[in-house]
Amino acid sequence: xxxxxxxxxxxxxxxxxxxxxxxxxxxxxxxxxxxxxxxxxxxxxxxxxxxxxxxxxxxxxxxxxxxxxxxxxxxxxxxxxxxxxxxxxxxxxxxxxxxxxxxxxxxxxxxxxxxxxxxxxxxxxxxxxxxxxxxxxxxxxxxxxxxxxxxxxxxxxxxxxxxxxxxxxxxxxxxxxxxxxxxxxxxxxxxxxxxxxxxxxxxxxxxxxxxxxxxxxxxxxxxxxxxxxxxxxxxxxxxxxxxxxxxxxxxxxxxxxxxxxxxxxxxxxxxxxxxxxxxxxxxxxxxxxxxxxxxxxxxxxxxxxxxxxxxxxxxxxxxxxxxxxxxxxxxxxxxxxxxxxxxxxxxxxxxxxxxxxxxxxxxxxxxxxxxxxxxxxxxxxxxxxxxxxxxxxxxxxxxxxxxxxxxxxxxxxxxxxxxxxxxxxxxxxxxxxxxxxxxxxxxxxxxxxxxxxxxxxxxxxxxxxxxxxxxxxxxxxxxxxxxxxxxxxxxxxxxxxxxxxxxxxxxx
Length: 508
Description:
With 508 residues, this protein is an alpha/beta fold. The chain contains 17 helices and 20 strands. The chain folds into 3 domains: 235 residues, Rossmann fold (3-Layer(aba) Sandwich); 180 residues, 3-Layer(aba) Sandwich (Rossmann fold); 74 residues, no CATH class.
Protein backbone atom coordinates (compact mmCIF):
# COMPACT_ATOMS: atom_id res chain seq x y z
CA UNK A 1 0.00 0.00 0.00
CA UNK A 2 1.36 3.41 -0.98
CA UNK A 3 2.46 5.63 1.90
CA UNK A 4 0.10 8.61 2.35
CA UNK A 5 1.38 12.16 2.01
CA UNK A 6 -0.38 13.16 5.25
CA UNK A 7 -1.31 10.96 8.19
CA UNK A 8 -2.84 12.64 11.26
CA UNK A 9 -3.40 10.10 14.05
CA UNK A 10 -5.75 10.49 17.02
CA UNK A 11 -5.37 14.25 17.41
CA UNK A 12 -6.70 15.54 20.75
CA UNK A 13 -6.76 19.26 21.54
CA UNK A 14 -8.31 20.90 24.62
CA UNK A 15 -8.91 24.48 25.72
CA UNK A 16 -9.41 25.16 29.44
CA UNK A 17 -10.37 21.53 29.97
CA UNK A 18 -12.87 21.48 27.10
CA UNK A 19 -12.02 19.09 24.25
CA UNK A 20 -12.15 20.77 20.85
CA UNK A 21 -10.77 17.65 19.10
CA UNK A 22 -11.37 14.15 20.40
CA UNK A 23 -9.10 11.68 18.65
CA UNK A 24 -9.45 12.86 15.03
CA UNK A 25 -7.56 10.93 12.33
CA UNK A 26 -7.31 11.77 8.61
CA UNK A 27 -5.04 10.69 5.74
CA UNK A 28 -4.41 12.19 2.32
CA UNK A 29 -2.40 11.17 -0.74
CA UNK A 30 -0.41 13.15 -3.30
CA UNK A 31 -2.61 15.17 -5.67
CA UNK A 32 -5.80 14.44 -3.72
CA UNK A 33 -8.36 16.88 -2.37
CA UNK A 34 -9.95 16.16 0.99
CA UNK A 35 -12.83 18.41 1.95
CA UNK A 36 -13.28 18.94 5.67
CA UNK A 37 -16.94 19.50 6.55
CA UNK A 38 -18.74 20.24 9.78
CA UNK A 39 -20.84 22.83 11.54
CA UNK A 40 -19.24 26.02 12.88
CA UNK A 41 -17.43 25.12 16.09
CA UNK A 42 -17.07 21.45 15.12
CA UNK A 43 -13.25 21.58 15.25
CA UNK A 44 -12.29 21.94 11.56
CA UNK A 45 -10.19 25.08 11.98
CA UNK A 46 -8.62 23.77 15.20
CA UNK A 47 -7.51 20.62 13.36
CA UNK A 48 -5.93 22.70 10.60
CA UNK A 49 -4.20 24.95 13.13
CA UNK A 50 -2.67 21.83 14.62
CA UNK A 51 -1.56 20.63 11.17
CA UNK A 52 -0.13 24.01 10.11
CA UNK A 53 1.81 24.62 13.35
CA UNK A 54 -0.34 27.43 14.75
CA UNK A 55 -0.78 25.08 17.70
CA UNK A 56 2.78 23.69 18.11
CA UNK A 57 3.89 20.17 18.89
CA UNK A 58 3.34 19.47 22.57
CA UNK A 59 0.17 21.55 22.83
CA UNK A 60 -1.91 18.62 21.55
CA UNK A 61 -1.93 14.83 21.82
CA UNK A 62 -1.56 12.51 18.85
CA UNK A 63 0.88 12.27 15.98
CA UNK A 64 1.29 13.85 12.55
CA UNK A 65 3.29 12.24 9.74
CA UNK A 66 4.10 14.05 6.49
CA UNK A 67 5.90 12.23 3.68
CA UNK A 68 6.61 9.45 6.17
CA UNK A 69 8.34 11.69 8.71
CA UNK A 70 6.85 12.70 12.05
CA UNK A 71 6.08 16.43 12.26
CA UNK A 72 7.08 18.20 15.48
CA UNK A 73 6.57 21.81 14.38
CA UNK A 74 7.17 24.68 16.76
CA UNK A 75 5.38 27.14 14.44
CA UNK A 76 4.15 27.90 10.94
CA UNK A 77 7.65 28.46 9.58
CA UNK A 78 8.48 24.80 10.32
CA UNK A 79 5.42 23.44 8.49
CA UNK A 80 5.93 25.79 5.53
CA UNK A 81 9.49 24.46 5.21
CA UNK A 82 7.94 21.00 4.79
CA UNK A 83 5.54 22.28 2.11
CA UNK A 84 2.37 22.64 4.23
CA UNK A 85 0.79 26.04 3.61
CA UNK A 86 -2.52 27.36 4.97
CA UNK A 87 -4.59 30.20 3.50
CA UNK A 88 -6.98 31.47 6.12
CA UNK A 89 -10.45 32.86 5.44
CA UNK A 90 -9.18 36.23 6.67
CA UNK A 91 -6.43 36.90 4.12
CA UNK A 92 -3.00 37.75 5.55
CA UNK A 93 -1.72 40.13 2.87
CA UNK A 94 -0.18 43.55 3.61
CA UNK A 95 -2.41 45.88 1.61
CA UNK A 96 0.07 48.74 1.34
CA UNK A 97 2.73 46.51 -0.23
CA UNK A 98 2.89 45.32 -3.84
CA UNK A 99 1.99 41.86 -5.06
CA UNK A 100 5.68 40.99 -5.45
CA UNK A 101 6.55 42.27 -1.98
CA UNK A 102 3.77 40.18 -0.45
CA UNK A 103 4.76 37.02 -2.31
CA UNK A 104 8.37 37.27 -1.14
CA UNK A 105 7.69 38.76 2.31
CA UNK A 106 10.06 36.95 4.68
CA UNK A 107 11.54 34.94 1.78
CA UNK A 108 13.28 37.67 -0.21
CA UNK A 109 15.88 36.77 -2.84
CA UNK A 110 19.33 38.27 -2.61
CA UNK A 111 21.50 39.25 0.34
CA UNK A 112 20.93 41.40 3.39
CA UNK A 113 22.87 44.11 1.55
CA UNK A 114 21.08 43.97 -1.79
CA UNK A 115 17.82 42.30 -2.83
CA UNK A 116 17.56 40.77 -6.29
CA UNK A 117 14.49 42.70 -7.47
CA UNK A 118 14.85 41.53 -11.07
CA UNK A 119 14.74 37.86 -10.12
CA UNK A 120 11.81 38.37 -7.73
CA UNK A 121 9.95 40.36 -10.39
CA UNK A 122 10.46 37.58 -12.96
CA UNK A 123 9.42 34.85 -10.52
CA UNK A 124 6.29 36.82 -9.54
CA UNK A 125 5.23 37.07 -13.19
CA UNK A 126 5.59 33.28 -13.51
CA UNK A 127 3.50 32.68 -10.38
CA UNK A 128 0.78 35.13 -11.44
CA UNK A 129 0.55 33.40 -14.82
CA UNK A 130 0.19 30.07 -13.03
CA UNK A 131 -2.85 31.35 -11.10
CA UNK A 132 -4.32 33.07 -14.19
CA UNK A 133 -3.89 36.58 -12.77
CA UNK A 134 -3.03 39.15 -15.44
CA UNK A 135 -1.68 42.02 -13.31
CA UNK A 136 1.66 43.71 -12.75
CA UNK A 137 3.88 42.45 -9.90
CA UNK A 138 4.07 46.09 -8.79
CA UNK A 139 0.30 46.38 -8.21
CA UNK A 140 -0.60 47.28 -4.64
CA UNK A 141 -2.74 44.72 -2.84
CA UNK A 142 -5.26 47.38 -1.83
CA UNK A 143 -6.02 47.92 -5.53
CA UNK A 144 -7.18 44.31 -5.96
CA UNK A 145 -10.57 42.74 -5.34
CA UNK A 146 -11.05 39.93 -2.84
CA UNK A 147 -10.96 37.27 -5.55
CA UNK A 148 -7.68 38.57 -6.93
CA UNK A 149 -6.20 38.76 -3.43
CA UNK A 150 -7.17 35.11 -2.91
CA UNK A 151 -5.21 34.18 -6.06
CA UNK A 152 -2.20 36.18 -4.84
CA UNK A 153 -2.31 34.11 -1.63
CA UNK A 154 -2.19 30.94 -3.73
CA UNK A 155 0.72 32.34 -5.77
CA UNK A 156 2.48 33.08 -2.48
CA UNK A 157 1.92 29.47 -1.40
CA UNK A 158 3.28 28.13 -4.71
CA UNK A 159 6.41 30.19 -4.14
CA UNK A 160 6.98 28.20 -0.95
CA UNK A 161 7.10 24.92 -2.91
CA UNK A 162 3.77 23.84 -1.47
CA UNK A 163 3.00 20.12 -1.34
CA UNK A 164 -0.17 20.41 0.74
CA UNK A 165 -2.39 23.50 0.44
CA UNK A 166 -5.03 24.19 3.09
CA UNK A 167 -7.87 26.46 1.93
CA UNK A 168 -10.26 27.71 4.64
CA UNK A 169 -13.58 28.95 3.18
CA UNK A 170 -11.81 30.31 0.06
CA UNK A 171 -14.96 31.19 -1.90
CA UNK A 172 -17.17 32.75 0.80
CA UNK A 173 -16.67 36.30 -0.55
CA UNK A 174 -16.11 35.57 -4.26
CA UNK A 175 -18.30 36.08 -7.31
CA UNK A 176 -19.38 33.06 -9.38
CA UNK A 177 -16.76 33.83 -12.03
CA UNK A 178 -14.00 34.12 -9.39
CA UNK A 179 -15.16 30.83 -7.83
CA UNK A 180 -14.87 29.06 -11.21
CA UNK A 181 -11.32 30.39 -11.65
CA UNK A 182 -10.29 29.31 -8.14
CA UNK A 183 -11.76 25.81 -8.48
CA UNK A 184 -10.05 25.44 -11.86
CA UNK A 185 -6.69 26.32 -10.31
CA UNK A 186 -7.17 23.76 -7.52
CA UNK A 187 -7.92 21.13 -10.20
CA UNK A 188 -4.70 22.09 -12.01
CA UNK A 189 -2.73 21.83 -8.76
CA UNK A 190 -4.14 18.31 -8.29
CA UNK A 191 -2.75 17.43 -11.69
CA UNK A 192 0.67 18.66 -10.55
CA UNK A 193 0.58 16.35 -7.52
CA UNK A 194 -0.22 19.08 -4.99
CA UNK A 195 -2.70 17.90 -2.37
CA UNK A 196 -5.35 20.11 -0.82
CA UNK A 197 -7.47 20.22 2.33
CA UNK A 198 -10.55 22.23 1.43
CA UNK A 199 -12.85 23.67 4.10
CA UNK A 200 -16.18 24.89 2.79
CA UNK A 201 -19.87 25.08 3.66
CA UNK A 202 -20.71 25.07 -0.07
CA UNK A 203 -21.42 21.41 -0.60
CA UNK A 204 -21.78 21.66 -4.38
CA UNK A 205 -18.13 22.79 -4.50
CA UNK A 206 -17.12 20.04 -2.11
CA UNK A 207 -18.62 17.29 -4.26
CA UNK A 208 -17.31 18.77 -7.52
CA UNK A 209 -13.74 19.14 -6.30
CA UNK A 210 -13.00 16.41 -3.78
CA UNK A 211 -11.63 12.90 -3.79
CA UNK A 212 -12.57 12.46 -0.14
CA UNK A 213 -14.95 14.11 2.32
CA UNK A 214 -14.21 14.01 6.05
CA UNK A 215 -16.89 15.14 8.51
CA UNK A 216 -16.22 16.37 12.04
CA UNK A 217 -18.99 16.92 14.57
CA UNK A 218 -18.42 18.30 18.08
CA UNK A 219 -14.71 17.51 17.85
CA UNK A 220 -15.28 13.89 16.80
CA UNK A 221 -14.37 12.33 13.46
CA UNK A 222 -17.68 11.00 12.11
CA UNK A 223 -16.46 9.50 8.84
CA UNK A 224 -14.25 9.90 5.77
CA UNK A 225 -15.88 8.74 2.55
CA UNK A 226 -15.23 8.93 -1.19
CA UNK A 227 -16.91 12.03 -2.58
CA UNK A 228 -18.25 10.03 -5.52
CA UNK A 229 -20.37 7.96 -3.10
CA UNK A 230 -22.00 10.94 -1.37
CA UNK A 231 -24.85 13.36 -1.95
CA UNK A 232 -25.29 16.75 -0.32
CA UNK A 233 -27.97 15.24 1.95
CA UNK A 234 -25.52 12.52 3.05
CA UNK A 235 -22.98 15.14 4.11
CA UNK A 236 -25.62 17.26 5.87
CA UNK A 237 -26.86 14.25 7.84
CA UNK A 238 -23.32 13.45 9.01
CA UNK A 239 -22.66 17.09 9.89
CA UNK A 240 -25.75 17.75 12.00
CA UNK A 241 -26.43 14.23 13.24
CA UNK A 242 -29.99 14.23 11.96
CA UNK A 243 -32.00 14.42 8.77
CA UNK A 244 -33.05 17.90 7.68
CA UNK A 245 -36.50 17.58 6.14
CA UNK A 246 -35.71 20.40 3.75
CA UNK A 247 -32.77 22.72 3.28
CA UNK A 248 -35.21 25.64 3.13
CA UNK A 249 -38.00 25.00 5.68
CA UNK A 250 -40.67 27.23 4.13
CA UNK A 251 -43.67 27.71 6.43
CA UNK A 252 -47.08 29.18 5.65
CA UNK A 253 -47.65 32.64 7.11
CA UNK A 254 -50.09 35.49 6.72
CA UNK A 255 -48.96 38.53 4.70
CA UNK A 256 -50.77 41.75 5.54
CA UNK A 257 -51.05 45.27 4.18
CA UNK A 258 -48.16 47.38 2.93
CA UNK A 259 -46.12 48.56 5.91
CA UNK A 260 -43.13 50.18 4.15
CA UNK A 261 -43.05 52.28 1.00
CA UNK A 262 -39.71 53.48 -0.38
CA UNK A 263 -39.71 55.82 -3.37
CA UNK A 264 -36.95 57.46 -5.41
CA UNK A 265 -34.05 56.11 -3.34
CA UNK A 266 -30.72 57.40 -4.58
CA UNK A 267 -27.17 56.99 -3.25
CA UNK A 268 -23.83 58.17 -4.60
CA UNK A 269 -20.22 58.79 -3.66
CA UNK A 270 -18.54 62.15 -4.39
CA UNK A 271 -16.68 61.98 -7.71
CA UNK A 272 -18.15 58.58 -8.70
CA UNK A 273 -19.05 58.09 -12.37
CA UNK A 274 -22.49 56.67 -11.56
CA UNK A 275 -24.88 56.38 -8.64
CA UNK A 276 -24.70 53.23 -6.54
CA UNK A 277 -28.48 53.43 -6.15
CA UNK A 278 -30.47 55.15 -8.92
CA UNK A 279 -34.15 56.00 -8.39
CA UNK A 280 -35.27 52.75 -6.73
CA UNK A 281 -38.82 52.40 -5.43
CA UNK A 282 -40.38 49.35 -3.75
CA UNK A 283 -42.83 48.28 -1.05
CA UNK A 284 -42.85 45.76 1.80
CA UNK A 285 -45.88 44.15 3.42
CA UNK A 286 -46.42 43.15 7.02
CA UNK A 287 -45.21 39.61 7.71
CA UNK A 288 -43.47 39.35 4.33
CA UNK A 289 -39.98 38.07 3.51
CA UNK A 290 -38.71 40.22 0.63
CA UNK A 291 -35.58 38.88 -1.06
CA UNK A 292 -33.13 41.22 -2.81
CA UNK A 293 -30.82 39.65 -5.41
CA UNK A 294 -28.23 40.97 -7.83
CA UNK A 295 -24.57 40.68 -8.72
CA UNK A 296 -21.78 42.22 -6.67
CA UNK A 297 -21.91 45.99 -7.21
CA UNK A 298 -25.62 46.00 -8.05
CA UNK A 299 -26.39 48.39 -5.18
CA UNK A 300 -28.22 45.90 -2.92
CA UNK A 301 -26.30 46.68 0.26
CA UNK A 302 -26.16 50.42 -0.43
CA UNK A 303 -29.95 50.53 -0.76
CA UNK A 304 -30.34 48.83 2.62
CA UNK A 305 -27.80 51.19 4.18
CA UNK A 306 -29.95 54.13 3.04
CA UNK A 307 -32.96 52.65 4.84
CA UNK A 308 -30.88 52.14 7.98
CA UNK A 309 -29.19 55.54 7.92
CA UNK A 310 -25.64 54.22 7.68
CA UNK A 311 -24.68 54.88 4.04
CA UNK A 312 -21.38 56.80 4.06
CA UNK A 313 -22.02 58.89 0.93
CA UNK A 314 -24.85 61.15 -0.21
CA UNK A 315 -28.30 59.59 -0.18
CA UNK A 316 -31.96 60.46 -0.25
CA UNK A 317 -35.26 58.58 -0.30
CA UNK A 318 -38.89 59.05 0.64
CA UNK A 319 -39.60 56.46 3.33
CA UNK A 320 -43.07 55.83 4.68
CA UNK A 321 -43.52 53.38 7.54
CA UNK A 322 -47.10 52.57 8.56
CA UNK A 323 -48.24 55.69 6.72
CA UNK A 324 -45.78 58.01 8.48
CA UNK A 325 -43.02 59.75 6.50
CA UNK A 326 -39.61 59.25 8.11
CA UNK A 327 -36.36 61.20 7.98
CA UNK A 328 -33.68 58.60 8.66
CA UNK A 329 -30.19 60.09 8.82
CA UNK A 330 -28.70 57.79 11.47
CA UNK A 331 -28.89 54.25 12.78
CA UNK A 332 -30.34 55.54 16.04
CA UNK A 333 -33.20 57.16 14.11
CA UNK A 334 -33.82 53.92 12.20
CA UNK A 335 -33.92 51.83 15.36
CA UNK A 336 -36.26 54.33 17.02
CA UNK A 337 -38.60 54.09 14.02
CA UNK A 338 -38.56 50.28 14.18
CA UNK A 339 -36.04 49.44 11.43
CA UNK A 340 -33.07 47.22 12.33
CA UNK A 341 -30.29 45.86 10.12
CA UNK A 342 -27.91 42.93 10.54
CA UNK A 343 -24.84 43.97 8.45
CA UNK A 344 -23.16 42.02 5.68
CA UNK A 345 -19.71 41.98 7.32
CA UNK A 346 -20.26 40.84 10.90
CA UNK A 347 -16.58 41.07 11.87
CA UNK A 348 -16.19 44.71 10.76
CA UNK A 349 -19.65 46.12 11.41
CA UNK A 350 -21.49 43.62 13.60
CA UNK A 351 -19.49 42.60 16.65
CA UNK A 352 -17.15 44.18 19.18
CA UNK A 353 -14.66 41.27 19.21
CA UNK A 354 -13.18 41.65 22.70
CA UNK A 355 -16.52 42.41 24.37
CA UNK A 356 -18.53 39.60 25.95
CA UNK A 357 -21.35 37.84 24.11
CA UNK A 358 -23.95 39.33 26.47
CA UNK A 359 -22.84 42.93 26.11
CA UNK A 360 -22.72 42.50 22.33
CA UNK A 361 -26.36 41.42 22.48
CA UNK A 362 -27.55 44.40 24.56
CA UNK A 363 -25.38 46.97 22.77
CA UNK A 364 -28.29 48.64 20.94
CA UNK A 365 -30.57 48.99 23.97
CA UNK A 366 -28.21 49.98 26.79
CA UNK A 367 -30.34 53.03 27.60
CA UNK A 368 -33.14 50.64 28.56
CA UNK A 369 -31.12 49.51 31.59
CA UNK A 370 -29.98 52.95 32.75
CA UNK A 371 -31.94 54.72 35.50
CA UNK A 372 -32.20 58.52 35.69
CA UNK A 373 -29.44 58.64 38.31
CA UNK A 374 -27.01 56.62 36.17
CA UNK A 375 -27.29 53.19 37.77
CA UNK A 376 -27.39 50.10 35.55
CA UNK A 377 -30.16 47.55 36.08
CA UNK A 378 -27.79 44.60 35.74
CA UNK A 379 -30.42 42.09 36.84
CA UNK A 380 -32.78 43.01 34.00
CA UNK A 381 -29.91 43.12 31.49
CA UNK A 382 -28.74 39.67 32.57
CA UNK A 383 -32.30 38.36 32.29
CA UNK A 384 -32.65 39.72 28.73
CA UNK A 385 -29.24 38.33 27.74
CA UNK A 386 -30.01 34.82 28.91
CA UNK A 387 -33.46 34.89 27.29
CA UNK A 388 -31.91 36.00 23.99
CA UNK A 389 -29.16 33.35 24.14
CA UNK A 390 -31.77 30.67 24.80
CA UNK A 391 -34.14 31.85 22.06
CA UNK A 392 -31.46 32.06 19.38
CA UNK A 393 -29.64 28.93 20.65
CA UNK A 394 -26.32 30.77 20.84
CA UNK A 395 -23.65 28.24 21.81
CA UNK A 396 -21.38 29.91 24.36
CA UNK A 397 -19.81 28.71 27.60
CA UNK A 398 -20.83 31.94 29.33
CA UNK A 399 -22.35 35.29 28.40
CA UNK A 400 -19.08 36.94 29.51
CA UNK A 401 -16.98 35.05 26.95
CA UNK A 402 -15.47 37.40 24.33
CA UNK A 403 -17.63 37.05 21.21
CA UNK A 404 -14.55 36.65 18.98
CA UNK A 405 -14.20 33.15 20.45
CA UNK A 406 -17.55 32.01 19.05
CA UNK A 407 -18.02 30.34 15.68
CA UNK A 408 -19.26 32.49 12.80
CA UNK A 409 -22.76 31.05 13.03
CA UNK A 410 -23.04 31.80 16.74
CA UNK A 411 -21.69 35.32 16.25
CA UNK A 412 -24.40 35.85 13.62
CA UNK A 413 -27.12 34.58 15.95
CA UNK A 414 -25.88 36.92 18.69
CA UNK A 415 -26.09 39.91 16.32
CA UNK A 416 -29.62 38.94 15.31
CA UNK A 417 -30.50 38.59 19.00
CA UNK A 418 -29.25 42.15 19.57
CA UNK A 419 -31.56 43.64 16.98
CA UNK A 420 -34.54 41.55 18.02
CA UNK A 421 -34.26 43.17 21.47
CA UNK A 422 -35.02 46.50 19.77
CA UNK A 423 -38.44 45.00 18.84
CA UNK A 424 -38.22 45.96 15.15
CA UNK A 425 -41.14 46.22 12.77
CA UNK A 426 -38.74 45.67 9.89
CA UNK A 427 -35.61 43.52 10.08
CA UNK A 428 -33.04 43.84 7.28
CA UNK A 429 -30.73 40.82 6.95
CA UNK A 430 -27.74 41.44 4.65
CA UNK A 431 -26.14 38.09 3.71
CA UNK A 432 -27.46 36.47 6.91
CA UNK A 433 -25.95 33.02 6.26
CA UNK A 434 -22.60 33.91 4.70
CA UNK A 435 -19.81 31.71 6.02
CA UNK A 436 -21.97 29.63 8.35
CA UNK A 437 -22.79 25.94 8.27
CA UNK A 438 -25.90 24.16 7.08
CA UNK A 439 -27.25 23.52 10.57
CA UNK A 440 -26.91 27.17 11.62
CA UNK A 441 -28.49 28.27 8.33
CA UNK A 442 -31.48 26.04 9.00
CA UNK A 443 -31.94 27.57 12.47
CA UNK A 444 -31.81 31.10 11.04
CA UNK A 445 -34.39 30.21 8.39
CA UNK A 446 -36.70 28.77 11.06
CA UNK A 447 -36.26 31.95 13.10
CA UNK A 448 -37.15 34.11 10.09
CA UNK A 449 -40.43 32.29 9.61
CA UNK A 450 -41.17 32.51 13.35
CA UNK A 451 -40.63 36.29 13.17
CA UNK A 452 -42.88 36.88 10.18
CA UNK A 453 -45.60 34.87 11.91
CA UNK A 454 -45.31 37.40 14.73
CA UNK A 455 -45.84 40.22 12.22
CA UNK A 456 -42.24 41.31 11.68
CA UNK A 457 -41.40 42.14 8.05
CA UNK A 458 -38.03 40.95 6.72
CA UNK A 459 -35.83 42.17 3.87
CA UNK A 460 -33.13 39.61 3.03
CA UNK A 461 -30.19 40.46 0.77
CA UNK A 462 -28.39 37.34 -0.42
CA UNK A 463 -25.92 36.22 -3.09
CA UNK A 464 -27.15 32.64 -2.70
CA UNK A 465 -29.91 32.28 -5.30
CA UNK A 466 -31.27 28.97 -3.92
CA UNK A 467 -31.64 30.75 -0.58
CA UNK A 468 -33.39 33.73 -2.15
CA UNK A 469 -35.88 31.47 -3.92
CA UNK A 470 -36.29 29.04 -1.02
CA UNK A 471 -37.03 31.63 1.66
CA UNK A 472 -38.52 34.73 0.02
CA UNK A 473 -42.19 35.48 -0.65
CA UNK A 474 -41.23 38.03 -3.30
CA UNK A 475 -37.88 38.87 -4.93
CA UNK A 476 -36.43 42.16 -6.18
CA UNK A 477 -33.53 42.01 -8.65
CA UNK A 478 -31.03 44.86 -8.95
CA UNK A 479 -28.43 45.67 -11.58
CA UNK A 480 -25.97 48.60 -11.50
CA UNK A 481 -27.99 50.53 -8.94
CA UNK A 482 -31.37 50.11 -10.59
CA UNK A 483 -34.32 47.87 -9.81
CA UNK A 484 -34.59 45.60 -12.87
CA UNK A 485 -37.30 43.14 -11.87
CA UNK A 486 -39.79 41.92 -9.28
CA UNK A 487 -40.97 38.30 -8.99
CA UNK A 488 -43.27 36.18 -6.86
CA UNK A 489 -41.48 33.10 -5.51
CA UNK A 490 -43.94 30.72 -7.16
CA UNK A 491 -42.26 29.17 -10.20
CA UNK A 492 -39.18 31.39 -9.81
CA UNK A 493 -35.87 29.92 -11.01
CA UNK A 494 -32.22 30.89 -10.70
CA UNK A 495 -32.13 31.36 -14.48
CA UNK A 496 -34.91 33.97 -14.35
CA UNK A 497 -33.09 35.92 -11.64
CA UNK A 498 -29.73 35.78 -13.44
CA UNK A 499 -31.22 36.79 -16.77
CA UNK A 500 -32.79 39.80 -15.10
CA UNK A 501 -29.61 40.65 -13.17
CA UNK A 502 -27.36 40.71 -16.26
CA UNK A 503 -29.73 41.68 -19.10
CA UNK A 504 -28.47 45.25 -19.32
CA UNK A 505 -24.86 44.08 -19.40
CA UNK A 506 -25.68 41.64 -22.20
CA UNK A 507 -27.39 44.29 -24.32
CA UNK A 508 -24.57 46.80 -23.94
